Structures are given as C-alpha cells and as structure tokens.
Amino acid sequence: VKMAGDSRFPDVDTDGSEKNEETEIVVNVGGVRQVFYGDNLNQYPETRLAELINCLSGGYDSIFSLCDDYDPGKREFYFDRDPDAFKCIIDVYYFGEIHMKKGICPICFKNEMEFWKVDLKFLDDCCKTHLSEKKEELEEIARRVQLILDDLGIDASESRWKRCQKYIWKFLEKPESSYPARVIAVLSFLFILISSVVMCVGTIPDLQVVDAEGNRMEHPTLDSIETACIGWFTIEYVLRLISSPNKLHFALSFMNIVDVLAILPFYVSLTLTHLGAKLMELSNVQQAVQALRIMRIARIFKLARHSSGLQTLTYALKRSFKELGLLLMYLAVGIFVFSALGYTMEQSHPETLFKSIPQSFWWAIITMTTVGYGDIYPKTTLGKLNAAISFLCGVIAIALPIHPIINNFVRYYNKQRVLETAAKHELELMELNSAEGKAANSKSELEILAREGKEDPFHCSRLKVSHSDTFIHLLSEEKHYRTRLQSCK
C-alpha cells in the first residue's frame, strides 16, 4: 500500500502541490493506456477523469481515492476496470454521447458508467433500450425467485387459515409444487377435454333424443357428464377464488373471466329452463337457452391455463399488435380498391354477380386471402385481370408481417426459457452460498477448537467429532449443489 510522503513518489511536494503542472494525464485501464488533455476533460468536470487533473494537488490520499495505483515517474494513473467498457465511455468527451458495444452486459456497463461518474443521460437511446430490457429481465427473475421462496417458506406467525389458503393456492395453481398438485392439474385438463368433446358430440342428430313437444335435445347421459364437468369447474373456481392472495386481481384476470364465461351459461340456462317458462313464452326460453349454450365454447380457452405454449402464443400476439395492425390495414386498403374496381369492370356484363360495392367486399376478402369460394366471380376479361392482381397483392400483404410475428413468438418463448433457467440458477446459487456460509462458520469453529486443543486434550476430542460430523457433511452438500448447477447449465 502506498502512503503519502513515501520516498518512492518524489514528484509530489509535501504540501500536496504539483511541481510541474501539465494539461495532459495518462490513464492505464486494464493494460490499455490513454492520454487525455485537460480541455477535453474539463467539459464534464464532475466525472472521475476530470477530477484526476486536480487530484495531484491534494496529495496521495486524494490520488488513491480516485484510482487504484499511481506511477509518479510516468505520471500514470492505473485503474483495475474493464478496458472495453472504458473505450466506449470516453466517447462522451469527444462526441457527447456513448454507445455500448455488443457483447457487453448492460448492467455491468451501467456500473462502469457510475464508477467513472458519467451520467446515464449521455447513453444513446438505442443502448438505453437494451439496459431497460435487462433491468426488466432481472426484475422478472427476482420476482420468480421471490415467488418460489414464498412458496417454500412457512411463516409461523400466520394463522392456520392463512396457511391453509397458501396450501390450497399452491395445490391448485402450481402443479410443480407437489405430486398431488400435478394429479389435480391433469384431472382439470381431462375435464376440459371431456366437456369440449361432449359439447361437440351432443350436436350429432343420431345421439339426440326427442322430448314430449317434439324438440330435439341432448342425450341424458351426455347431459349428466356435462353437469359433472361444470360441477368440477365450479368447485375449482370457488376454491381458487377463496385462496387467492388478491381477490380483485384474481376476478379481473383474463383467464379467470374465461372461467366464469365457461361456467355461467350452464347456471343461467338451468335457471331459465326451470323458472323462465313462468315469465315468458316457452319458445323464447328455448332460444335463450340455445344462445347461452353456444357460449360453452369459451371453456376451450381454459386449456391455456395448462399449456405454456398457448400462453406464449397469447403474449407473442400481444407484442405483435403493430404487425397485426399493418396486416389489417393492407388488407382493408386492398379490399376497398379491388372491390370498387371489380364492381366497375363487371357492371356492364348482363349476368354480373357484382350487384354493389359493399357486396363486392365479400369477393375481395375471399380473393385476397386466397380462399376463393366461387360464389362470386368475375366474367369479363378486365374483371379476371383485376382478380389476378388482387390475389397476388393479397399473398404479398399477408406474407410481409408474418416474419416479424414469428420472430416475436420465438424471441418471447426463448426469453421465458432463459428466465426460468436463470431463476433456477439463482436458487441453486443461494443454496450453494448458504452451504458455503455454514462451512465457513464450521471452519472458524474448528480453528478455535484447534487452538484450545493445544492446551486441553478434551478439546482435541471435540475437534475430531466436529470435523467428522459437521464439516464433511457440508462438503458433501456442496458437491451435491455443484452437480445440480452443472446439470442446469
């Protein structure tokens, strides 16, 4: 350690003033030497490099408060920092902005900027985006780790009802928490499939029965299966609602609204069937029941709760609203233009199928999407040419936004996998650090016991017992954690 007044530093006066004031300084960052001039550094006087100009007048205490080492012979300041990040940061003195190179961790680069006392406002907007994305990833990892720790932890101060709520919530919402929870998740998935299949099979005429009024209705066996599935969905929803930590957030969640829409039609139609006939005509009741039974298709969306792939697709579509909007805009413009042209070109034909421009919208839609039902088609040569151009433009309009949408899906899917892996690594590191901390405490106890054993043979016997019963056991735990870490990688 170099101290003030050391004979090895002859270029600094004892009163702390410089003998020969110069306007340039030499900085060595991780083996990379850079020469700076005072007029450049003084543009930003609050930065660390600008403070180096005047630090020599403050003596070695002032020097070593800013750098790691100093060579008075070469007048060179040494810093044990990242040279690649430093090369990016010094751009602020020449260009007034900073760009972060590829391959540098945004969080580490932010720490480097804080060390050199350069404000983040000089970081370019494109690099700020990478920094904000990295912060969001770290926050998401911390949130996932905290959720796992909350699930593992048991607060003895909580009431029995609170502990029971947590257990039910984990049992129904987190299949990975235990084997019975996985069984419940599989059962719920099977009930959704059975209910969807029953809804479809119930519309087959050969499986329907005729009631006293001559109306067709579902087979009683299928109706009983439907009732059992609805009973399962109802019990599951009520238990999840009771055990949810935040009931308002639970009720307003999109997937939980889907659950309500899948359950509600059954009870509404049941109420109308038994009570509605007294208030309105029977035919109106049957029409209302049939309309409500159509809403049973909402239960197929319950599969998204048990499928990470469907959830990823939903989030990817949310991130692709801009691309989807462009697709719809292209199609809307093309539909309007080609339907108007088709109506104009076909109007002179005596057997034209284009009666009006709004009616031509249907033809433009099925043509640009390359469906082509054939119910409306052009009969003139110009109309056929217009149709050919319209479906070629439709193929191009549909194909252009598809690639960005697929990229969003792949990026989000890979990101979720990385976050899951990172959360597991974080938990493994926490376990490893905990094991190392216990080993360090045991080692300090062993050293104390070893010193005491020189004076008292009784402590020697304690040392042997402590070494064999505690220290080796922790080593085996540490080895176990390292193996799990390597397997995660």
Automatic annotation (TrEMBL):
> Could you tell me the membrane topology recorded for this protein?
Multi-pass membrane protein
Q: Which gene encodes it?
A: KCNF1_0
Q: Which Gene3D superfamilies match?
A: 1.10.287.70, Potassium Channel Kv1.1, Chain A, Voltage-gated potassium channels. Chain C
- Give the range the annotation lists for the signal sequence: none
UniProt name for this protein = Voltage-gated potassium channel regulatory subunit KCNF1
Q: Which organism is it from?
A: Eudyptula minor (Little blue penguin)
Q: Where do Basic and acidic residues bias regions lie?
A: 8-22
Q: One GO CC term of this entry?
A: voltage-gated potassium channel complex
Describe its partners and assembly state.
Heterotetramer with KCNB1 or KCNB2.
